[in-house]
Structure formats: structure tokens, C-alpha cells
Design a protein that fits this description.
The complex is a heterodimer of chains A (429) and B (161).
Chain A: E1 10-13, E2 18-22, H1 29-40, E3 45-49, E4 58-64, E5 67-73, E6 79-83, E7 98-100, E8 103-105, E9 112-114, E10 119-121, H2 130-134, E11 145-149, E12 152-156, H3 164-168, H4 171-179, E13 186-188, E14 193-197, H5 201-208, H6 214-217, H7 219-228, E15 238-245, E16 248-254, H8 269-287, H9 289-297, E17 299-304, E18 308-312, E19 316-325, E20 328-338, H10 343-356, H11 364-377, E21 388-390, H12 405-418
Antiparallel strand pairs in A: 1-2, 2-21, 3-12, 4-5, 4-7, 5-6, 8-9, 9-10, 11-12, 13-20, 14-20, 15-16, 16-17, 17-18, 18-19, 19-20
Chain B: H1 6-21, H2 25-29, E1 32-41, E2 56-60, H3 62-72, E3 85-99, E4 102-115, E5 118-133, E6 136-146
Parallel strand pairs in B: 1-6
Antiparallel strand pairs in B: 1-2, 3-4, 4-5, 5-6
Classes of the chains: A alpha+beta (429), B alpha+beta (161).
């Protein structure tokens, strides 16, 4: 059943300050299938952080873009990403979420693999041909591409993909501002927030770096801040959104909340002030005062196309999410912090995280509600006059933190990959 | 300290459930001590994890719990306005003994949240630390351990468990 649909899916006209996205993009199963084919199967995707498999033999299993993957650090210390499926008849070779082991045994027929993916032994080995062993038909299959950017590990299902560094492009500047916060390396903290949203995944892309929705969607969070924190009224939400190329985008801005690296707020007391000043001084020593100020006093909501969000705000969250249907996504969220952080600062980081972020925070549940409400509105996605989203805020004007340039950046790259067309082709609606 | 009987504790927990299901949240908060803690750990953490070094879903002290109740009373708390329907079922109540001056109680729970045509289930165990005062029992700590692999499809813990 194909109703007449807007074509193209994304429409841009700079002269008119017009930027539209067809709501069908959020509801159509064929479009989701095209996203798997042209986006998730071609782009570099975040797998996990090297700190999650810190020791030799550490492993985690994780679903990424519908694949069942095994992420290991082998006995030589090398990081690996395998498809978690026995080369023999397909059962999972690892059925635990995380742990440490030199070997994985498929329980179905007893094949045993090293954490480097090599087949170590199999019952009845003498019943297999010499070619079987020679051709290494029994080894675990690695994901075609694996790459590590300063601890953040990415995979690519496309063997022909270019390098991760090239892919990250201008986004590296902002990733580095987060990863430079630690001398000994940033690590993922214990505890993973796994949840789902009954909405299209691209709604969370938009929401994750949307400065425009704070005042209304998060009114009750802002009330909470006013009730509980003696806030420095001088610090306003102020900054800019930027297109970084390749669909990556960022909003960088000042904000009234405290940052564990290292923006002190009165709630943290004198002890906290000393700690924050010391953190800032150390950063200034390593990176110069200007960069230290930027690291400490600016917030960053960074999107790495297509679906990695790094929000360096009142805490640092890493978030990624995949659709299982046009109206349903699974979300994974983590907290990132410096390895060498004091227990005092770690506690405040986590406390800060929970007051805003995650399924029990004072803000994220209202984002979830907003996204699900959009999805409910898209029941009208094919109605004449109601078939477009308007993403034009700020077009033709100087950049400001609560405009929508960062969403236009995503949509242009999404459209290029999914429709194979420029947003400027295809005439008027 | 003499331990309360199971039926006394059951009456108390049923009263708590009733206040929650009727959205009498200010009265519900009065069941808590001023040094109370309310916690919902992430589902991949061990039972004895601490919010000091691990990421939870919720780790409230009394101040934040009170703010949570204030927020839940607002129309601008969009995820619970309009309000969802909830039903807290509390079962398998056991009074385990005294720990550091608190009465340790465990119970099983199933909490149902219905909104926009979806009914989501939160299932798990409560780990309570109770105190006695003149008026009866008070809650010093409530930890809700979910027997779930994440919040799928629940998506959020915007209600009180």
C-alpha cells in the first residue's frame, strides 16, 4: 500500500529559508530497510569502549545494528570484534553479557575457541578433512572492520569503508575535547542504561542536540534546578550549533549547571571548589589556558553520524540506538569519566548524571514522552499538508545554540545515503 | 529493638502501595525519614552495587526524592501528565532482622503502568530498611531491584516503584 508520498524525502531551499523532512521517513518500513542497507551497513558504528574490556580475556556481548557481536581483548592484549555465532551450525559461542575467559565453548557440539577467535579444539576432529583445518573454516568470523579512536572502538560492516579517522573528520576536534579531560584515559563507568523508546530512532538523533526544546519540554527540570541549586545567574544558555560535515554536528554552549570537569557550582562547597580549581589548573598545564577553559566551561552535544551521541554536559553520556521497527528503538546509555577521578568527583559526576539523564532522570523521561508523541502525530504522516516536518530554524542567520542547523546537517547526509539524492534536487513540494 | 511482625509490615507496605496507586504522593513521602534513600539500580549491576561508583537509573537522597514528588505533581512533568494508571502488587514479604539499627525487610513486587494503550510491567524485589517511630513504621531506605534486562519496552521509570 503506497500512498502518494512527498518526493524527495528532504527538501531544502535556502532562498526561502525552507527545510523540510517528509514524516514518512519516520513511519515507513522500506525506508528503515534502506537505512540498514545504506547507513548502518556502511557507516562506522560505535561498538564500545576499550575500558569495558580492560584486562586480557575480558569480553562483552552486544547487539549492534541487529548483529550479535562478541567484543574481546585476547591474551595478547589485542581488541577483537567477532560475530557471536559458531562457524559450525550457528549457536552463540558466548552466552554471557560480560566476563573474563581464555576460551569460549559452543555448548551445542563443544567447539572451543580462543578469545582471539581461533578454533582450539573440536570433538571428533579426526572426522574433518585436512582442508577444513588448512582453510581455517573453524575460526570465529571477525566483523569486517574494527578501529579504535583513543579508546572508543568502532566497527564497520563494509570491508571497503575508508578509515575511521577520515570518517570522523571534523568531529575529532570535539571528541578530543571530551577525551582530553583525562590524563590517564576516559573510562566507561559501571552500570549501563538499557531502554527502549516507542518512536523512530531519528527522533532521538534530533532530540540529542536540540537546544530549542529545553524551556518547555524540561520546564520541570529547570524548576528543580532553581529549587535546589543556588545558581550563578550570570551563566546563560549561550553558544552555537555547527555542521561538521559527513552528517556530524555539534552544539557548543555555556550553561548554568555544574560540570565535573570542571565548572564549580555553589552546591559543591569549598572542598569542591578546591578540587575543580585543581582540575582546571592541571588541564591548563597540559593544554594551555584557552583550551582548558573551553574543556571546562563549555558544554558539547555531539552527534557522530548516524547514531553515536556524546553529550558532555552536567556529566558525560555516550548513547547509541537502533531501530527494530520504524516506531521502535533500543537505546544503550553509558557514563564516561576520567580513570583517575577522585571518589568525591566520581560521586558528583554520577549524581549530576542522574538528576538530568536516563530513564529515571528529571529530563530524559520527558524527552521519551515527546518523541513518542511525535510518533503518534505521524499517524497523519501521509495527509496532505501534514506530511512535512519543518527544520528551518536559524536558516540564513548567524548560528545560535538553539537553532536547527545540527539537525539539517544530519538530514542532508541521511538523505544523500538513503535517497541517493541531494536535498536541492527534485523541485518544490 | 523488637522486630515488627510480618503482618504489621505487610499492612504498612500495602498502605504505601495504595498511596502510590492513588497518586497521593505527598502523603507517600511522609512515610520516609528525612535521611531516606530511594534507589533503582541499572539492571546489569550486582545486587550490592553503590551509586557512589556505579550508574543507576535512580539514586535519590531525601532532597531529590522530595523534588521528584514535586515534579510528579506538575502538569509540566510531561511523561506523567496526563497521569498513568499504576498498580503496585507487593508479595513474599519477609522481616529479616535488624541491620545497623534498621529493620531489614524484603518483598517481591510487580508494578503495572498503563498509558497511551500500553501496559508495562516492572517486576523485581524490594530491599527495605525501616525504622520505628511513635506513629508506626517509617522507610529509611528503599532499593528496587528489577528482575529485567533493561527497560525494554518500559523506556522510563517516571513513576515511583
Amino acid at each position: 500500500m503506497n500512498a502518494p508520498t512527498p518526493s524527495p524525502l528532504v527538501l531544502e531551499d535556502e532562498k526561502q529559508g525552507l527545510f523540510r523532512v517528509a514524516r514518512k521517513s519516520f513511519t515507513d518500513t522500506e525506508i528503515m530497510n534502506a537505512e540498514y542497507g545504506n547507513v548502518f551497513n556502511k557507516c562506522w558504528l560505535y561498538l564500545g569502549h576499550e575500558s569495558e574490556v580492560a584486562k586480557k580475556g575480558d569480553f562483552i556481548t552486544r547487539t549492534v545494528a541487529k548483529r550479535n557481536l562478541l567484543f574481546t581483548r585476547d591474551m595478547n592484549g589485542v581488541l577483537n570484534a567477532f560475530f557471536n555465532t559458531c562457524p559450525h551450525r550457528g549457536a552463540e559461542v558466548c552466552r554471557e553479557r560480560a566476563g573474563n575467559s581464555k576460551h569460549f565453548q559452543c555448548f551445542y557440539h563443544g567447539w572451543i575457541f580462543g578469545c582471539d577467535g581461533q578454533l582450539k579444539s573440536l570433538p571428533g576432529a579426526d572426522r574433518y578433512s585436512a582442508d577444513f583445518k588448512e582453510q581455517k573454516r573453524g575460526n570465529l568470523v571477525p566483523v569486517p572492520r574494527f578501529s579504535n579512536y583513543r579508546g572508543m572502538c568502532f566497527i564497520n560492516f563494509d570491508p571497503q569503508a575508508g578509515s575511521l579517522e577520515d570518517y570522523l573528520g571534523n568531529a575529532r576536534e570535539y571528541l578530543d575535547l571530551v577525551l582530553d579531560q583525562s590524563e590517564s584515559g576516559m573510562v566507561i563507568l559501571k552500570g549501563m542504561q538499557e531502554y527502549a523508546i516507542r518512536a523512530n530512532w531519528k527522533l532521538l538523533v534530533e532530540n540529542s542536540n536540540d537546544g530549542y526544546h529545553a524551556a518547555t519540554t524540561h520546564a520541570s527540570y529547570l524548576d528543580y534546578l532553581a529549587n535546589t541549586h543556588a545558581l550563578d545567574k550570570e551563566v546563560a544558555l549561550r553558544g552555537v550549533g555547527r555542521e561538521l560535515g559527513g552528517g556530524h554536528a555539534v552544539v557548543e554552549y555555556t550553561a548554568p549547571w555544574g560540570r565535573p570537569i570542571a565548572n564549580w557550582i555553589p552546591k559543591w562547597g569549598e572542598e569542591g571548589k578546591k578540587e575543580m580549581d585543581a582540575l582546571h589548573a592541571k588541564l591548563a598545564e597540559r593544554h594551555g589556558k584557552e583550551r582548558a577553559d573551553r574543556i571546562c566551561f563549555k558544554n558539547r552535544n555531539l552527534l557522530i553520524f548516524p547514531n553515536l551521541v556524546l553529550n558532555d554536559i552536567m556529566a558525560v553520556t555516550v548513547r547509541t540506538f537502533y531501530p527494530t521497527a520504524p516506531n521502535y528503538m533500543n537505546v544503550n546509555g553509558w557514563a564516561l569519566g576520567p580513570n583517575e577521578e577522585s571518589s568525591w568527583a566520581r560521586q558528583y559526576r554520577l549524581d549530576n548524571f542522574l538528576e538530568f539523564l536516563g530513564p529515571g532522570g528529571f529530563a530524559t523521561p520527558d524527552d521519551v514522552e515527546a518523541l513518542e508523541s511525535c510518533q503518534a502525530g505521524y499517524q497523519n504522516a501521509l495527509e496532505t499538508g501534514a506530511e512535512w516536518n519543518d527544520i528551518s530554524k536559524g536558516m540564513g542567520l548567524d548560528p545560535f545554540y538553539d537553532d536547527e542547523v545540527q539537525m539539517r546537517s544530519f538530514w542532508k547526509e541521511w538523505n544523500r545515503r538513503v535517497s541517493g539524492a541531494s536535498t536541492k534536487e527534485g523541485g518544490q513540494s | 529493638m523488637s522486630l515488627p511482625t510480618r503482618s504489621e509490615v505487610e499492612d504498612f507496605l500495602y498502605q504505601e502501595a495504595d498511596l502510590l496507586d492513588n497518586w497521593k504522593l505527598k502523603e507517600w513521602l511522609q512515610l520516609y525519614t528525612k535521611d531516606a534513600e530511594y534507589q533503582v539500580p541499572s539492571t546489569d549491576l550486582p545486587k550490592d552495587a553503590s551509586p557512589v561508583d556505579s550508574l543507576f537509573y535512580i539514586a535519590d537522597d531525601y532532597v531529590r526524592l522530595e523534588q521528584r514528588v514535586i515534579r510528579l505533581g506538575k502538569k509540566s512533568m510531561h511523561s506523567e501528565y496526563p497521569r498513568s494508571k499504576t498498580r503496585h502488587l507487593v508479595t513474599n514479604v519477609r522481616v529479616l532482622g535488624e541491620v545497623e539499627g534498621d529493620i531489614q525487610v524484603t518483598a517481591g513486587f510487580a508494578v503495572f503502568r498503563t498509558k497511551w494503550g500500553n501496559t508495562d510491567t516492572f517486576v523485581g524485589s524490594y530491599d527495605y530498611r525501616l525504622r520505628r517511630n511513635e506513629g508506626g513504621l517509617l522507610i529509611r531506605k528503599k532499593r528496587c531491584l528489577l528482575d529485567l534486562d533493561g527497560l525494554r519496552p518500559q523506556g522510563r521509570v517516571s513513576i515511583l516503584l
